[in-house]
Amino acid sequence: MRRATITDVAREAGVSPSTASVVFSGKTPVSAQTRERVLAAAASLGYTGPDPRAASLRRGRSGIVGVVFRDRLGTVFRDPVTTVMMDGLADAVGHLGAGLLLLRDDGSGGEPALNSAPVDAVVLLGWSAGMLASLATVRARGLPVVVIEGDAGEGVPQILLDNREGEALIARHLRDLGHREVVTLTLPLDSRRRAGWADPTTAVAVDVTRDRLAGVRDVFPGARAYASVGSLVDEGYAAGTAILARHPRPTAIIAQSDLLATGVLRAARDAGLRVPEDVSITGFDGISTDGTAPRILTTMVQPAAEKGRAAGAAIAAMLAGQDAPTIRLTSTFRRGDTTGAVPA
Amino acid sequence: MRRATITDVAREAGVSPSTASVVFSGKTPVSAQTRERVLAAAASLGYTGPDPRAASLRRGRSGIVGVVFRDRLGTVFRDPVTTVMMDGLADAVGHLGAGLLLLRDDGSGGEPALNSAPVDAVVLLGWSAGMLASLATVRARGLPVVVIEGDAGEGVPQILLDNREGEALIARHLRDLGHREVVTLTLPLDSRRRAGWADPTTAVAVDVTRDRLAGVRDVFPGARAYASVGSLVDEGYAAGTAILARHPRPTAIIAQSDLLATGVLRAARDAGLRVPEDVSITGFDGISTDGTAPRILTTMVQPAAEKGRAAGAAIAAMLAGQDAPTIRLTSTFRRGDTTGAVPA
DNA sequence: TTGTATGCGTTATCAG
DNA sequence: CTGATAACGCATACAA
After folding, report:
1. 3-class DSSP state for residue B300?
2. B63-74: b or e for each residue (b if 16 or more CB lie within 10 Å)?
3. Do A197 and A267 belong together in one domain?
4. DSSP state of B217
5. FRET partner for B59 with CA separation of 20 to 30 A, picked from A171, A224, A329, B87?
6. Is the pLDDT of residue A338 over 80?
7. How many domains does chain B fold into?
8. What integer pLDDT is reported at residue A287 of this predicted model?
């Protein structure tokens, strides 16, 4: 026995299909009486509302926004910033009556899911060579697209953060406290992800890493950089241990994420150093304070949820036929108790 | 100028629409020659493949699996177990050629997105009263549904974990080490989420919490329980501080998650206690070891990715018309260096 | 406020 | 291997 359709309901209620349709969509006034009848007929037939597949064909909209990642979900969502950003994005598109479809862009060359996914628009998360393929697909399909923290060129709206200015601000904070011997612990430099002291002359492939590094060097031109393998507490612990073993020991460590900073904090402590008396530590993000208690990290708080909401707004605009501008969000300085005057 | 359709392509290539269709679907052999012609026509018209909306109406499948949460995404994905599980689920449905649609079930009574989402099947994550509404919707629509760590009753396949047995196993480990004065730090008891010592007589609403607590009490019938507000490191820190201040001080703390245990570890340290010499600490999950370095937590390692994959397999079976069995996964004991003999 | 007519773009079926 | 035909289930423009 096949499922009831709106035609069946209409017949049962003794009205036309279009009238029954309107009862469910609410697009046109319907007399209370006919509405009753239609609803009753629907109930008696076990009809639960229009088939979303048929509706989306007819409307030309599926109510779905695709989000493309370049990594495994398990990796992507380990970063609290991404998580919170997704939350903001979910809010924004939810407000639009849409949902988020998770799409993974593994550069594996296999048929990308993006090709055959019924999405109305696409959000590209982060940036990497592999994303170029996704971008090509999206443009060929003529879908509105937004890029978060990456540059897709040619008229694709972006949601950007003032990474360089923010990091420079926190670096100035340290310089004002008298620090001169500073090391910065960076996010991965490229997709090869090797940990260790970075050669100052090599170019950095990842936008976020490059910009935050530039911010530090705006203030401390000769600052040494130690690259991490990823934004994880235990990565910060390992890197922090290595950095603090260096002679002369830096008086401040500028980590490019709070997770890394949390690990450095722990490393300093295990090395018998007091924070901030012996060494100052800063982070970036301001999301995950989890794990630093009872300390409060000095960090740049970035509007992560706002990033997602801005992306959602851009999509709403493009779906409405307008074109959306690139948006540059700013982070704010938060002074915690992990930074202090340079040790005498 | 409207977008080209497969009919346009067929006309341009001088073949019938059905032939053009099979060139893209590959469902039927096509001569190399006609394939060439069709592909060339498609390229010249800027046709990038069948419209997913139309295809899904015709096929009766959208290639989308909905995942329903009861919380904000930012909250849900803060738990590494969920994250890894989602990764496994994404793998499994990706293997099926499908994607994951994030659906939030805020019990807010508003039109649930689930009603009008073009999904082929649904995964219900966690369990709560609010999920009943989602379940009703899903059943009314006749969609295959799987529940992860929750009981939906009546023939809904579940993916379960041996929470009680696993926690009992870790409790026995402590008993064998001589511990008698044990406190367990639990996950939230219910949706009100109040922190503090739990009355042993009140019923626990959350399945996971209840089962793990029962596991502890199977071994230590009188064990006191302290409820946390959520599975967070700093929650563990606060609770651990409170628990360790109690007289007599427990010789072991059984935390219901690794994140909580990580916080307790930190609290013990800040209280001047050595682990495991003065106090033993255990966790549960075995996913996020991040933040405990250089210590290794004694814990139960649960097959989180496997949970997701099992859910995916169940969905694949149901989509194929078979009915999927409930699956009970088991976690394995991992002895780290946070447990030791009871202090003299 | 209700009904009629039409097509959204595709693909399964079956005959050639 | 290819083509003709017929839905898939609905929402809209327009007429009544």
Report:
1. strand
2. bbbbbbbbbbbb
3. yes
4. H
5. B87
6. yes
7. 3
8. 84
Range of the domain at B321: 64-161+304-330
Task: List all residues 6 or more positions away from A124 whose beta carbon is below 8 Å from its beta carbon.
Answer: A68, A131, A134, A135, A138, A145, A146, A147, A148, A150, A152
User: Is the model's pLDDT at B289 over the cut of 70?
Assistant: no
**DSSP labels, B148-207:** ESS---TT--EEEE-HHHHHHHHHHHHHHTT--SEEEEES-SSTT---EEPPTTS---SH
How confident is the model over B133-143, as pLDDT tens digits? 888 889 889 89
Residue B119 contacts residue B62 (beta carbons within 8 Å) = yes
Q: Which of residues 278-307 of B touch A (CB under 8 A)?
A: 289-294, 305
* Chain C nucleotides reached by a protein CB under 7 Å: 1-13
Helix (H, G, I), strand (E, B) or coil at A5: coil
Q: Which of B191, B186, B222 is nearest to B205 (CA)?
A: B191
Q: Is B230 on the interface with A (CB under 8 A)?
A: no
Q: Which amino acid is at B152?
A: A
Same domain, A71 and A127: yes
DSSP letters, A89-106, are HHHHHHHTT-EEEEEE--
Please identify among residues 190-229 of chain B the ones whose CB lies closer than 8 Å to any CB of chain A. none
Residue B262 domain-assigned (yes or no): yes
Average pLDDT score over residue span B270-290: 91
Are B63 and A116 spatial neighbours (Cβ–Cβ below 8 Å)? yes
The closest of A308, A307, A310 to A318, measured between CA atoms, is: A310
Q: Is A182 helix (H, G, I), strand (E, B) or coil?
A: strand
Q: Give the pLDDT confidence score for residue B108 in this predicted structure.
A: 62
* Cβ-count burial B126-165 (b if 16+ within 10 Å, e if not): bbbebbeebbebbbebebbbbbbbbebeeebbbbbbbbbb
- Output the CA torsion sign for B70, B72, B78, B83: positive
The fraction of chain A above a pLDDT of 70, given in percent, is 96
Evaluate if residue A309 carries a pLDDT over 70.
yes
Tell me the H-state helices in B189-257. 207-219, 233-244
